[in-house]
Write a structure and sequence with these properties.
The complex is a heterodimer of chains A (135) and B (385). With 135 residues, chain A is α+β, with helices and mostly antiparallel strands. Chain A contains 2 helices and 6 strands, in the order βαββββαβ. The chains are: A alpha+beta (135), B mainly alpha (385). Chains A and B meet through α1 and β2 of A and α5, α7, α8, α10 and α12 of B.
Chain lengths: 135, 385
Amino acid sequence: MAKYLLLKHYRGNPAAVNDVPMDKWTPEEVSAHIQYMRDFANRLEETGEYVGGEALAPEGTFVRYDGEGRPPITDGPFAETKDLIAGWMIIDVDTYDRALELAGELSAAPGAGGEPIHEWLELRPFLSEPPTITE
Amino acid sequence: MNAQVNELLLRSLTPSVLGILVRRGADFAAAEDAVQDALVEAIRVWPDDPPRDPKGWLVTVAWRRFLDQARADTARRNREDRIDEEPPPGPGPAVDDTLQLYFLCAHPSLTPSSAVALTLRAVGGLTTRQIAEAYLVPEATMAQRISRAKRTVSGVRFDQPGDVATVLRVLYLVFNEGYSGDVDLAAEAIRLTRELAARIDHPEVAGLLALMLLHHARLEARTAPDGSLVPLAEQDRGRWDTALIAEGVEVLQAALARDRLGEFQAQAAIAALHADAQAADETDWVQIVEWYDELALLTDSPVVRLNRAVAVGEADGPRAGLAALAKLDDTLPRYTAVAAYLHERDGDPVTAARLYVEAAQKATNIAEVGHLTRQAARLNARRSE
């Protein structure tokens, strides 16, 4: 029983095998991709392993504190695709191997030509609550 | 009657009500749903209109739900199956099927997380929402986890004797999950283990109960006001619950007297030795090392060997602890944290600080990350003074 974040981002990971930008897909391929993600989430809910997931808008703003009584400073937006976080999903699974298996399945979402994208996803464990028994 | 009393009563009645439905011929999955409906109904109705016979009320309401559902299913399938509308006369069989439910819900065909969820619902009488909140997953996900678990055990005969070890593993998992959510899972695990101990005479059941009681006794002392974890050595022992400790020790001694040692009894013995020390430096580490040796024979768990190295470090000095540690696989969880601690005690704060930082990066829970980071910061601050 451990929670993992499946993070879909483009920050330093190698290029996907089927690396064609989404706007070069056919509309049907885009629909098929979205449907795959939806089916994946539904299937995980049925197996009792789904916690949550969202897609993120591509444009973000950097914000930081600028001292007492002053409004926060913003910078950006930066829409460079190399920095993009596209979305995330949280799963709750019995084993690390199961988390790997599911990440692999998600990475097989279809893209251009209806072929799996083989895109790199980042799998990160959540920090848990401390166990009751420690010694 | 306040809502809190109601809920504990409800939970304690759940398994016997479920057992009665199954004995009347309902299949386990449908009966379990019907009992859950009756529980939800009771939570709604009882505060204003408490029944004179709570168990009878639950059996009646659950049985009615079961019949309604069965009729709806029959109609849907357009079948002619007939189910007796009237329950058998009398208060129901005097047989208590609670033990069978423990075995069924911990059946080895279930994954740990589904066995835990099913046990909490069918034996513990918690609602799906409460279980979902305790494990921080959506209610819909938890509902699916439970119904899949029920499908998995649907072919298992209800009257088959099970393996008590699987039940104990499930209860241990519930206890160890701790205190997230509004249901205290540790307290619930203790309640379920007490109920189990009342129904089966087994030294390891007693061992697990003792282990839980001895750890639960430290609950208040192990958490600082800011929520951070207080290590055993630094806990205010005046805040330990002496009544729980006394009970735990008594349960453990009775179990050990039967001379059928198991891993939970050995773990409880270690907890009892800690409980016995008025101050951290009065701890009988030599005996604790001996118990870890016993435990290593029983489980061969790498975590046990790691904890043994800590105990050796306390009993025979940090050098001996480091030597014991050196024989273990350095990829074990908490290996680096133990190494950091032993190096500090060995008078090497530079290595210790570096290892604490490394250990914090590898730690798997928030409290430990905070603790290890503070240790590194403490040593670094001392050096820069």
